[in-house]
Input
Amino acid sequence: MSKRRLALAVAVAVTAALTVPVAAQAAEAGPAASRPHDDFNGDGYADLAVAAPAATVGGKARAGYVAVLYGSENGLTTTGRKVFTQNSAGVPGTAEAGDGFGSALGTADLDRDGYADLVVGVGGEDTSAGVDAGLVEVVWGGAHGLAGGASVASGKAYDRLGATGRLTVGDIGDDGSPDVVTVANQHDLRVLQGPFTHGGAYGGEVLVPDRFDSRVLDLATGDVNGDGRTDVVGAENDGDEYDARRVVYWSGDGAGLSPYTVVRDVDGTRLQGGESLDVGDVNRDGCDDIVVGRAIDGYDSDLDTPLAKGGRVAWVPGTADGPDGAHAQFVNQDSPSVPGTAEKGDRFGTDVQLGDVDGDGWLDVLTGVPARTSGPSPTPVPWWC
Output
């Protein structure tokens, strides 16, 4: 899985909380393989990272920070709480207006020392390459929690490397070393191959080009065809038409990624996608599924997509042949299983996430309704599985 948004400060905090979920039960501290993938201090309890990329830091608007709470046998605790910015000791760079430190988050043991590391996107960073080139940085995990960091990649002018939705992690080469997947030129996948060193070096880099003028809106990793290899899934739109949505996936072949395949609807046309997605085995059939949130309504494609009113969430089952868009299921707030009533502009489907909320062993779909006219806003809404 991936992730990582709302109008930025408050919304991203909700997103990050769902992206790095708290473990339902603590694992026993011990071998690294038994630890949660988001256990930064190796104590066997999952930790929580919350991003606020629109926050003001040192008087610099939208410089951004990431707050970290550590897990314990009693759940999350404020003891030892840390806040990281680009002004923090060991974190590269300086907090500047518009940097957006925390615009995307990921967790993985990049240096293979047994502790989860925090991968941070800095989508608005200006570098020597130009304005809004963007950075990807890592804050290293260890026995005493997160500390120190390294810059592992930067983009070209206006790349916005590490911006919202353009960062995920996974073992793309199936060699046991997590890799970092970012987006270059707004549509080409840029894979930074692990393992990583504390100096920021890594095993190599592969560019997976997209010959179309696409725009990546969100990325996640998983195994969508059940072959045991890591795939990358993306929500995209056409560069010249925001409403021309699609869901695509790059299949892992054991060494890297193949060119992407478009998920097709029942009529053979491309499945109308959305702005955010996540990947996980919702129906526990051995293939990861895709959930896609389409929060924005009011576009031309809504004419043949009535469930887009007020926003919607789609579930696309994974199969041995890949994601099966022909059997996708769609819900909005008028659906029997979902609380509320669909109202235009609600933005139901904002930042979908997967997690076992009720502890029954099944993944649940969660999303936000940031523009709901009644009740608290933003409102996380679980779609129980």
